[in-house]
Amino acid sequence: MSLESLKIAKEKIRKEILARLRKQKEEDRFSKSLLILKKLFALPEFKRAKTILFYASFDGEVETLEMMKQSLTLGKKIALPSIHTKHKEITPTYVHNLQEDLVLGSYGIKESRHTGRYPVNCDEIDLSIVPGVAFDADNYRLGRGAGYYDRFLTRLSKEIPAIGLAFDFQLVTRLPRQEHDIPMTHVVSN
Prior knowledge:
The chain has a single domain, classed as Rossmann fold (3-Layer(aba) Sandwich), CATH 3.40.50. The protein is 31% helix and 23% strand. The chain has helices at residues 3-23, 26-42, 44-48, 65-73, 148-153; strands at 51-53, 77-84, 89-95, 102-104, 110-112, 127-130, 134-136, 141-142, 162-166, 171-172, 186-189. A hairpin with a 5-residue loop joins strand 4 (102-104) and strand 5 (110-112). The mean pLDDT is 94.
């Protein structure tokens, strides 16, 4: 498959699934997200993790705010990506208080107001929770197309689990892949 055909195939899947994410009812999104939370919290990788990089959900994604609240209650440290659009990079930044520390950042996604003040070194992260538009049977992910997570995940040790969160309609048999694509350790769905 040529690079151009690959891009077209990815964009078609991205468009279809983003439309479904945006169409679902909020109450369905929240109830399915709670099922995903229970499955995530039951994983040994989650139980062992002391510092977790979450993502702040938006645009119909699996809701992560409750996951972050409960993680803090369990005594885990949490971080969120701070997006640097100029360099297309993610800097993990600690979040201590979900009510006070979150502000709207790039792309309308919430991030820590403390970008630069509380950075997290990649070797401090025990678990990375990764967003995706779609995931396939081999745990590969399709993101929104800017490549932030593809680049970021190469900075993490291969020993650090990367877990995707998805609703059942975000799961496909096989995604178009490129050499730089990195599979998730697990994909947790409802």
